[in-house]
Fold these 4 entries.
Entry 1:
Amino acid sequence: MNEGDSGPHPPGGPPSPADRVAPPRLVIGYDGSPSAERAVRFGLRWAGSSRGSVWLVHATTHERHVAEPVTDEELSAPARAIVRAMETWAADARSQGVAATTVVREGSARDVVIAVAAEVRADAILLGTRGRTDANRLLLGSVSAHVVAHAPVPTVVVP
């Protein structure tokens, strides 16, 4: 090629604007489970390697699934613990140069995660899997299976 030709750069040369990849925008569903924590760690490594952004998302519900009387305080304690954990993850991400936002919304986890992904124009969704048996999955449904089937972007399910 002659000096004035506009061909591809040699290996190690500067990337062209078309070669540059935008930092990833990742939505990570978080429910406090060990697999959700693994999904967060995976997502933070991914975003951190390219200065991406993460949205840690938790869905709450006020349905009472207990047979004995409990106070509102007892019902909300697990959700508060999850929110505290999300804030800790987000602070850690920010200290490593990753933009991190926590989102807590009322609704079903599968719908909330998909909605947030669409709103923030996510590039991918990351979820943990609770490891339910096939029988439990049939009875209870699978958040990850629903999100994989209906998400507007690729979904990574972390065991």
Note: The longest helix spans residues 72-95.
Entry 2:
Amino acid sequence: MIAATVCPSDVPNCAGLLDINLTFVVELVLFLVTVYILWRLIWRPVIVILESRDQRLEAGRQAAAEAERRYTEGLAEVQATLDRARTEARDALAAAHRSAATGAEEVRAAAHLEARTITDQALAEIRAESEIAVASLRSQAQSLAVAAASRLLGRQLDEKHYAGIAAEAVGR
């Protein structure tokens, strides 16, 4: 058991629990000096380091938020650029198809026109050659008709005079 020490009144220099003397004051001063030294040398630098760390963490969070915002904006820009590029590529491809179709149609039309021109020229040449051949045949038929008539009649007929008659007979 712990017994409380009570100083009898007849003992000089007996310190009780509640007696304040010079030792208590010295211990209190030493305690306060120790607390001040610890505050100056350890706690304050630790608090400064912790506050600095908190500030760096907050700056890092803000930088991360800013980087994420910039990333999101950049991603949106890239997506918009890709969409524009896809649209432009689709438009360019459609324009190329239209241009190719137009060019093919122009080439087809030019080929048809050239074929028609060649056909018309060939038909004109055929008609001209046919007319020349018919004229030659008529001329030969007239000559043969006059020669045949001359032999039948037994006399020489004038070819110029009877050529008109022979032409009517041949069906000119």
Note: The mean pLDDT is 83.
Entry 3:
Amino acid sequence: MPATRCARLVSSRCVAHRASVAIVAAALWLQAGAACGVWAGEFNPDRSIGDTVPAWSGLPGTDGAEHGWDEVADRDFVVVVFTCNSCPYAVDYEDRINALAKTHAAEGSRVAVVAINANTIPEDSLAAMKKRAESKGFVFPYLSDVSQEVPKSFGALRTPEAYLLNAKREILYMGAIDDNTDASKVESHHLEAALKAALTGEPIPVAETPPVGCLIRFKRQRR
């Protein structure tokens, strides 16, 4: 066999071997992580269903006021959606979040809906959020968290990413709002199904799903 051909064959076998080793190592790492509790939920790296999240406070809203948990503490259930202006997936869900709030979070209801934007790029500035909220007619508080501490405390990674909390700030549901970014093709309304079950005291049918959307633009920190 020519030397060059032999070298290519050896090289390709080495690459294949390294790939197989990497796959096995990744599988073992995931198994070890699950066994040691590295992964909290099935899809959330930090939180599990039933965990209590910290109360937020002092978040400026598009209405010009500051908002905190105390405003919704009297509600039996609170829907928190991490979203933004700049992500096309988040934009696809704006009307659906608004519809959910209109249906379930009217004044005097048992439910509150809150949206939080933690991105800090100009397109997601509070001024831009105000324009967005006005043009879309948002009926829910749209809050800015430039500290980015709130999504971190939830283990949130994407926009949109939804959470259903009870009055004790315990997570009842977390993940995607529904099963399709195209509203005309949705078959399973994950978040609303969880909310309806909670309102009637029934078990949550699906408590966690993988969120689909853009990554939250967390600030880089020097090591």
Note: The CA atoms of residues 32 and 38 lie 8 Å apart.
Entry 4:
Amino acid sequence: MVHLDDTEIHGRRALVVDTDEEALKARAAELRGLGLIVTTATTSSAALAALDAQPVDLAVIELVLEEADGGFTLSYFMKKRRPALPVLITSRVTFEAGLDFDTYTAEERRWIKADGWLERPYRLEQLAREVRRLLHHRAAA
């Protein structure tokens, strides 16, 4: 069961990036429901500008942005600016194309440059678990 307005993550800041405005609104609403303060961006350049302009505790980005693998590129540049920033990539690539990515091993994280991977469609419980894990890991670092 998802505990909305979770005190462990309440008030933390998330940057959500997706070129699909409906998906962006839905993901932002899910994260707000968990108690996060959410900023959104529809382009990689807007996401980097938002990252530079304000504190962010977590980035949640779609794999397919302006390019088919734009989320990988954006994650790389986010990590160059803020190495400790947890980045969660979401995608439908396994569902739609059968390609399988994850970030379970150090080797996969090294080339993907993200701290988590969440395949869509996902359950809200899965999103909440990943957000808690990434924010907890950041707090412990």
Note: Residues 124-140 form the longest helix (17 residues).
